[in-house]
Design brief:
- The chain is α/β, with parallel strands linked by helices.
- It has 15 helices and 24 strands.
- The strands form 7 sheets. The protein has an 8-stranded parallel β-barrel, surrounded by 7 helices. It has a 4-stranded mixed beta sheet with strand order 7-8-9-10. It has a 3-stranded mixed beta sheet with strand order 11-12-13.
- Strand 7, helix 3 and strand 8 form a beta-alpha-beta unit.
- Helix 2 runs parallel beside helix 6 and helix 11 packs across helix 13.
- It is globular, with a radius of gyration of 25 Å.
Length: 499
């Protein structure tokens, strides 16, 4: 007979934290959110520690190289999506590893034969007003000049005017040689009152721009997630189909950590992929997703470096209604965290767990940490930002960004839902949607981090380890949930804090 659980599974919405004693020492500036992402032995140091315990989901609409750079700068980590050709994923990883903070590779370039009409079209498409002019129109061609909005007058300069006739020519530009430090480049910008500084090779080929507007963002960030060579760290998603081709290429490109991308990680295919990595590489690999102790123990025995928890809880995921598989996210995290602690007590090996899905509000992340999660994987949260790879669209008077699931017809990521059958997506387990546009990652994540630290102080905790050990949680009734929000008033203006 089938096994039935006596208690229903619960979501984060059904829990609240109970405040604990707060001393004068419990202030947000003293809270550390450092958390391991890879397993380690007792009294040892994990190989990778997140300074901000969030990672971006392995999704086409969330995690590319732009997102990876922005999140690593804040102390988190991106897992670049694997539902793309190996070569494209490798190039994204390489761009992150080769990125030099403050040096922006131009993705807006034209030839001297282009026209003002081309300039306007390119600016409209990219949002960039500084355009490099190169001999071949490519980002690393020989620099001929630069175009900014000060080089032409709309309504006066003819639309068919050639770029070479109105650009600021190379002979009139201040430039710097490749190899210049960011501090030296900024000194040139400030000394000559420039808005941008082109960086070129000895042969005159374009390398990158340094912008005045980026000066504050490029100051040293103590939370940056860097490897031993002071490069930004980046993760990469992999699947259980083409892993023997994909993983060697990603490791060679410099991926710091891998993660199996699957809706159900309790499978022989995941164990085989983990064994392949352990036998051939030193790169850590996470696995999942699971929702109970049996799933955790299976992947722990297989050698997973971290384990993702959650099935069907994502905002664009319809696995539960399509297949009837899943579990309330809070219950899943609680049970798997207990299994993780039991494994640690038995073996002396601590395997971090990642809460993936079911996050609607910032405080849901806080609850996930209290329930035992070491870090959270977020899709919709990051999809709203400038740094996500999707289009910003004006919809019914408000700006939104496109967001679709890997199991949707748009993504067609059949490998993620592979059960050993045909190499195709037989039915959808995700939807295509929009999310409200929210601005920059930095500004929004700073608010989220402040909420997390403030709540931890209310609970008398200064580290996530303390928080997982000492937090007090209570189930709440539906009436308690309603009582917790604004009620019995007419709101003047209210900005929804959902993410």
């Amino acid at each position: 007979m089938a096994i039935f659980y006596d208690e229903p599974s619960h979501t984060f919405n059904e829990y609240l934290l109970i405040p604990r004693y707060t001393s004068c020492e419990h202030t947000p500036d003293k809270v550390s959110l450092a958390s391991p992402i890879t397993k380690f032995k007792k009294n040892e140091t994990p190989s990778i520690v997140l300074q901000t315990p969030v990672v971006s989901a392995i999704m086409q609409s969330v995690s590319n190289d732009t997102m990876a750079i922005a999140l690593a700068r804040e102390g988190g980590l991106s897992f670049i999506f694997c539902s793309q050709p190996v070569e494209q994923q490798v190039r994204m990883v390489e761009r992150v590893k080769n990125y030099k903070a403050g040096f922006v590779e131009s993705d807006s370039t034209l030839t001297g034969d282009a026209t003002l009409r081309d300039v306007l079209a390119l600016s409209a498409r990219t949002g960039h007003t500084t355009i490099a002019v190169t001999d071949d129109g490519l980002p690393h061609g020989k620099l001929l000049g630069v175009i900014t909005s000060r080089d032409y007058r709309l309504g006066v300069t003819p639309l068919d005017a050639k770029v070479s006739d109105f650009m600021t020519a190379l002979s009139q530009l201040h430039i710097a040689q490749d190899g210049v430090s960011l501090q030296e480049a900024n000194n040139i910008i400030w000394e000559h009152k420039l808005n941008s500084l082109p960086i070129v090779t000895k042969e005159g080929n374009m390398v990158a721009f340094v912008f005045r507007k980026d000066y504050e963002n490029n100051q040293e960030n103590p939370y940056e997630l860097l490897d031993t060579e002071k490069r930004y760290m980046v993760g990469a998603g992999v699947n259980t189909r083409d892993y023997k081709e994909r993983i060697p290429a990603l490791v060679k490109a410099g991926a710091d950590v891998l993660c199996l991308d699957s809706s159900d990680g309790f499978s022989e295919w995941q164990a085989e992929t983990i064994r392949y990595v352990k036998n051939n590489f030193s790169v850590p690999i996470g696995a999942g997703n699971v929702v109970d102790a049996d799933g955790f123990n299976f992947l722990a025995q297989a050698g997973a470096d971290f384990i993702k928890v959650g099935i069907g809880g994502g905002s664009i995921c319809i696995t539960r209604e399509t297949k009837g598989i899943g579990r309330g996210q809070a219950t899943a995290v609680i049970e798997v965290a207990k299994a993780r602690d039991a494994w640690f007590a038995k073996t002396g090996e601590y395997i971090p767990i990642c809460s993936d899905g079911g996050i609607v509000y910032d405080y849901h992340m806080i609850l996930a940490y209290a329930m035992g999660a070491d870090f959270c994987m977020l899709g919709r949260y990051f999809a709203r930002f400038d740094e996500s790879p999707t289009n910003k669209v004006l919809l019914n008077g408000s700006y939104v960004k496109e967001y679709w699931g890997e199991g949707s017809a748009r993504a067609r990521n059949w490998q993620r839902y592979d059960a050993g059958g045909d190499a195709r997506l037989a039915f959808e387990e995700g939807v295509d949607s929009y999310v409200p546009y929210a601005g920059t990652l930095h500004d929004n994540l700073q608010v989220t981090v402040k909420k997390i630290k403030s709540t931890m102080c209310n609970c008398g905790c200064l580290s996530l380890e303390e928080f997982r050990r000492d937090a007090k949680l209570t189930l709440v009734s539906s009436a308690s949930i309603l009582e917790g929000g604004a009620h019995d008033v007419i709101l003047k203006d209210f900005k929804n804090s959902s993410i």
